[in-house]
Amino acid sequence: MRPLSVTEQVVAVLEQNILDGVYSSGAKLPPERKLAEEFGVSRPSVRAALQMLVARGMVVSRHGDGHYVSVRLEEGLLNGWQELLERHEYLQNDVLDFRRSLEGVIAGLAAERRTDTDLNRLQFWLDELESAYQSGNIERQSEADVNFHQAVAEAAHNILFAHISGSLLHMLHRHTQQNLANMFGVADVKPQLMSQHRAIFEAIRAQLPHAAAAAAQGHLDFVGSCLTQEREQSHWRQRAEALAAKDLREYKGNGK
């Protein structure tokens, strides 16, 4: 097998960084000059490498604005599901079932494979989540929640799981905000949610795969239960309001 050319070596490193999430979906890549300095190669070699990545669909070139990581890997896995979820509420139960299975496996692998750096990332997002709960800012809570779960997926050190998780969480980001708002309308669930995230973290830190999987699945069971309760209460409120309006119409219709 012939040795890789300089350009091919640059392509291999950049492609691996994209797959590993070092350059996230949609992120702008460093300019050619910085990449050339980082790799110790000429700018023409970097330029040729970027052109190869564009041809592969891994990178998008924007005239006058540099190169960006393609969103193809992230959006391609679940393309079209965002609109379906918005039109068909019952699909949320199917999504929770899928997440329950997926995140249980991921959390178990994370407990087996996590590094100290992974733990530091998880601790950061756990602290950020607690701070967001205290602030009452739904957007911050959603962002911290999504990033915590994605950090768990990346701690599993399986590229396919990381990309599937990233695609799913990206698609559900807006729904996560709405779900949090709905759940908080049922009861003060913040302490339970925080405790569940801590349980996932502690099991991963202690390298207990079965406990980590159970904690992740238990968390999603709780979320599903809260959302079901909220939907029922919403239905009851709508029905009560409709009956009250009917009574008022009939009362007025009788001339009273």
Give me a quick take on this structure.
Pfam families: FCD (PF07729), GntR (PF00392). The protein is mainly alpha-helical and 256 residues long. 78% of the residues lie in helices and 3% in strands.
Characterize the structure shown.
With 256 residues, the protein is mostly helical. The protein has two domains: 6-69, Winged helix-like DNA-binding domain superfamily/Winged helix DNA-binding domain (Arc Repressor Mutant, subunit A), CATH 1.10.10; 73-243, Four Helix Bundle (Hemerythrin (Met), subunit A), CATH 1.20.120.530. The chain contains eleven helices and two strands, in the order H-H-H-E-E-H-H-H-H-H-H-H-H. A two-stranded antiparallel ribbon has the order 1-2.
